[in-house]
Amino acid sequence: MAAIDLRAASKTGWVHTQASVATTWQQYQIPSWCNQVTVLGDAIVYVAGEENGNPASSESPADGGAVGTHRIEIPASTAYPVGIQGDPVQVTVGGGASPSGSIFVAAKTGTATVTLQLERV
């Protein structure tokens, strides 16, 4: 699996849809102007940010890696905004902010079609 590079997205409201997201982490690299990513899946999906700037651990998400316990579960057909803050880009997931230019999404079971809306709010 390879990271999906969305850093060239040039405007707020940019939408990216990807079919067949599996039960392992899919990494999405986000542009520096983006301060919120709204995630929507047609099935239950998990979302996570990089681990609070800590050294890599078994819980740190990685493209193609196994889903650990540090993630948020998003119900099917529910749009969930993931706040991004700070400089460098910070992803706020699970109560903490982490230096990141990426978010990670995985299907809970099977595969899911995932839509991301990159925003500046």
Q: What does this protein look like?
A:
The chain has 121 residues and is mainly beta. It is 0% helix and 45% strand. The chain has a six-stranded antiparallel sheet, with no helix packed on it. A five-stranded mixed sheet has the order 1-3-10-5-6, with no helix packed on it. The protein starts with a strand and ends with a strand. The model is unreliable at 87-91 and 94-100 (pLDDT under 50).
List the helices and strands and how they pair.
Blueprint: E1 4-5, E2 14-21, E3 26-29, E4 36-41, E5 45-48, E6 72-74, E7 80-85, E8 90-93, E9 96-99, E10 102-107, E11 112-119
Summarize it.
The protein contains no helices and eleven strands.
Strand arrangement across the biggest beta sheet: 2-11-4-7-8-9
Number of strands: 11
Distance N to C terminus: 31 Å
Discrete helix count: 0
What is the share of helical residues? under 10%
- Return Rg in Å: 13 Å
Q: What is the ordering of alpha helices and beta strands? A: EEEEEEEEEEE
Q: Which regions are unreliable across 5 or more consecutive residues at pLDDT < 50?
A: 87-91, 94-100
Sheet-strand content, in percent, reads: over 45%
Shape: globular
Describe the main β-sheet briefly.
6 strands, antiparallel
Structural class: mainly beta
